[in-house]
Amino acid sequence: MDEAERSWRRTIGLLRVTAMVEGVSNVLLFFVAMPLKYGVDMPMAVTIVGSIHGGLFLVLIAVITYAWGKGLTFKLSVWSVVAAVVPFGPWVVDRRIKEAEPMRGVPSDAGNVWKQNGERE
Fold first, then answer.
1. What is the pLDDT of residues 75-86, one digit of tens each?
2. DSSP string, the chain
């Protein structure tokens, strides 16, 4: 496996792990925190879980953007964002992400803004 393939696999692995963690926070928000808020009058549950979920959602958007720069297709990038909003969505899209190949014509270091000698381009 060459360096480009390793870089792509690391990027996809990062995206998959981030999507799963964000997906768990989404499920906790919808199926634990919201019932606590409306069922037993505990609004603090949504405040706490919602804040964590919001932060994880922003991290996921950053990782999707990074993966797009590394060669993730636009279509799969959009599906990843849509899946992040729907409960259990990340698990549905995960198979497609796992099997994804980088777009043709995108160099393996497309997201790298540093030259080999460490100077910024």
1. 999 999 999 999
2. --HHHHHHHHHHHHHHHHHHHHHHHHHHIIIIIHHHHHHS--HHHHHHHHHHHHHHHHHHHHHHHHHHHHT--HHHHHHHHHHHHSTTHHHHHHHHHHT--PPTT--TTTT--B-TTS-B-
